């Protein structure tokens, strides 16, 4: 059956080539996962916050080795793409960032991420997410990338805003975690030529939390003006 609308990103643009490493500012880079990284992933998933917000745990290194194998297969299948966040000066693994639920035909993906407790509050997650979003929009040609996080996860909200993702909507009772159902904030970066200015405070956010936001295609990190928080590093 012929398609009336051409694919936004042609099939094979990812899977027919090797997954690239991506340079990030602030002495970081993103690289594809290796099976030998399984011990790191196992240890990371012992963190209570990662368990809570990702809704999974790792029971052994064999299990995380299987996860990594599937992450690598996702690149070839063009269903998802996972990177390790790595510190450049010593090669230490410090986090994970991914494009999930990839749909090249319509040009969209979900962005997800976590970092180790030891590096939270140092700008690592926003830098990694902004770099990945910029690459996905400008190099791959995706049209829309979403970040969806529980409203209770304020750190994830700060990362999304700092990474250039504009708040779009709230989904009521949309994610189930160990402590019950959560409302979910949705943030987006879209492939547009002009800046998007968002001046409204989302109705379910405290007044003064975010007064004014300016983001540009996922490439510019943090143009928010957050009263009383200038100069403060957030996760």
Word description of this protein:
With 235 residues, the protein is α+β, with helices and mostly antiparallel strands. It is built from 5 helices and 10 strands. It has an 8-stranded mixed β-sheet with strand order 1-2-3-4-5-6-8-7, sandwiched between helices. It has a two-stranded antiparallel ribbon with strand order 9-10. Strand 5, helix 4 and strand 6 form a beta-alpha-beta unit. Helix 1 crosses helix 3 and helix 4 packs across helix 5. It starts with 21 loop residues before the first strand and ends in a 20-residue tail after the last strand.
Short description:
With 235 residues, the protein is of the alpha+beta class.
Unreliably modeled segments? 194-235
Mean pLDDT: 83
Q: What percentage of residues falls in helices of 4 or more residues?
A: 10-25%
Summed up, the helix count is 5
Radius of gyration: 18 Å
Provide the structure class: alpha+beta
Please provide the ordered H/E string of secondary-structure elements: EEHHHEEEHEHEEEE
Tell me the strand percentage band.
25-35%
C-alpha termini separation: 47 Å
Say what oligomer this is.
Answer: single chain
Largest sheet, in brief, is:
8 strands, mixed
Q: Give the strand line-up of the largest sheet.
A: 1-2-3-4-5-6-8-7
Which shape, going by the Cα principal axes? globular
Number of strands: 10
